[in-house]
Amino acid sequence: MVTKIKNILKEIKYWLATRRVFKPYFRYVLKQLGSHHRNSSRQKYSASIIMQSHVIEKGLSLKEIRPGYGVPKILKLLDDLSTYYKIYQDAEVLYFSLSIIQAYLDYNRGIGVENEEIQAKFQRMWDLLGKEDLPAELRGGGVHLRREDIWKDSRIDYQRFVMARHSIRNFTGERVDKALLDKAFEMAEYTPSACNRQPWHNFVFTKKENIIKVLDLQTGARQFKEDVGALILVTSSANCFFGHEFNQSYLNGGMYAMNLMLALHSLGLGAVPLNMGIAEERLKQIREFCKIPDAELPILLIAVGVISEELTVAASRRFDFRRYTTFD
Ligand SMILES: Cc1cc2nc3c(=O)[nH]c(=O)nc-3n(C[C@H](O)[C@H](O)[C@H](O)COP(=O)(O)O)c2cc1C
Predict the structure, then answer these.
(1) 69 Cα–ligand 1 center, Å
(2) Closest residue (by CA) to atom 17 of ligand 1?
(3) Cα(310)–Cα(328) distance, rounded to whole angstroms?
(4) pLDDT of 152-193, one tens digit each?
(5) Separation of 269 CA from ligand 1 center, angstroms?
(6) What's the gap in Å between 271 CA and the centre of ligand 1?
(7) Each residue's pLDDT tens digit, 46-70
(8) Banded model confidence at residue 23, pLDDT cuts 50, 70, 90
(9) CA geometry: angle 171, 174, 178, nearest 5 deg
C-alpha cells in the first residue's frame, strides 16, 4: 500500500515537472502561431521569400526539368519581392532571389521557352537595383557538376576525423584566435537548412568576464570555465518557420551547431557542447544578458578553447548502431 502511494506521488511529481518544462515550449508555439503572417517582421518576410525562391531553384536541380515550370509561383515571388524591397530596401535578399529567377530565365531561354510577364517584372526589379551583373558569389540557380568533382573533395577519411572529436573540458586558457572563429563560421555556413532558410544566429563571447557570466548561468562548465577561450551561443529563429513547422527551428539550429563543432574540430580547436535545456529562470537571465530577441530560440552553448597538450577525455562509449537501426 505504502509503495503504491509512493508511486502515485512520484507520478504527480513527474507530471508537475513535465508541465514546468513544457510551459515555455507551449508559449513558443503560441507565439509562432501568433506571428504566423509573413509580413509581421522583416525576418519572417525574408524567410518566406527565400523559401519561395528555393522552390524555383531546386526545380533546376532535377534530373528532368519541366520546361517553363512554376510560372504562377514566380510571378507571386516577384510581387512579394517588390513589396519586401519597398518596405525594407534589403538588397541582399533581392539579389538572392533575382539571381535564381535569372538562372530560371536563362535555362528556359536556352530551350526556347520565353515568358514575357516574368521577364518584364524581373527586368523592373533588376533595374531597381541598378547593377550591371551579379557578383559571382551571389549567383543562384543550378550548378553543373560531375560526380568526380564531388568525390574529389568528399572522399576523405571522415571516420578518423569524426572519431578524433571529443568533448574537450581541458583547455590551456589561451585566447582563441578570432581568424579561426571566423573560419569556423564560414565553414558552418554550409549547413543544410529547410528551404535554405538558414535560421541560425551566433552570439559570440570572447571577453573573460562575459564568458564566465554566461557559464555561471548555464552551470555545466563550472570546473573549467576559467580556461574557456571563447563561448558561442547558437540560437535559431522562430521567425523563419510557419504554421506546422514547430520543431524546425530546433532541428535546423541543432544541425548548424553540430556542423560548427566539427568545423572548430577541423581547425584544431577544442569544443564542448553545453546544454541550453535549462531552467526557465536561468534561461531568461541568459537572454537578458546576451540581449537575445524573443524569437531567437537558444539551441546550444559551445565552449571553445585551445586544447591542453595532454588531457583526458570522457570515453563516452557508443552503442552499436544495430541497436537503434532497423532495415526493411
Ligand atoms: C545537447 C548537449 C548538451 C550537453 N551539455 C553538456 C554540459 O552541460 N556540460 C558538459 O560538460 N558536457 C555537455 N555535453 C557533452 C556530452 O556529455 C558529450 O557530447 C557526450 O558525452 C559525448 O561525448 P563526446 O562529445 O566526447 O563524443 C552536451 C552534449 C550535447 C549534445
Answers:
(1) 46
(2) 167
(3) 45
(4) 999 999 999 999 999 999 999 999 999 999 999 999 999 999
(5) 16
(6) 10
(7) 999 999 999 999 999 999 999 999 9
(8) low
(9) 110
Contact 231, 214 (CB under 8 A): yes
Q: What's the grid cell of residue 152?
A: 574529389
Count CB atoms within 10 A of the CB of residue 278.
Answer: 17
Distance 37 CA to ligand 1 centre (A): 37
The x, y and z cell numbers of residue 240, run together, are 523563419
Strands 200-205 and 270-275: unpaired
Residue 297's alpha-carbon distances to 47, 91, 199, in angstroms, are 16, 26, 10
Phi-psi region of 316 (alpha: psi -120 to 50; beta: other; left: phi over 0): left
Closest CA to 176 of 289, 312, 302: 302
Contact 249, 240 (CB under 8 A): yes
Residues with CB under 6 A from ligand 1: 166-167, 169, 220, 272-275, 300, 313-314, 316
Spatial distance between the Cα atoms of 203 and 214, rounded to a whole number of angstroms: 11
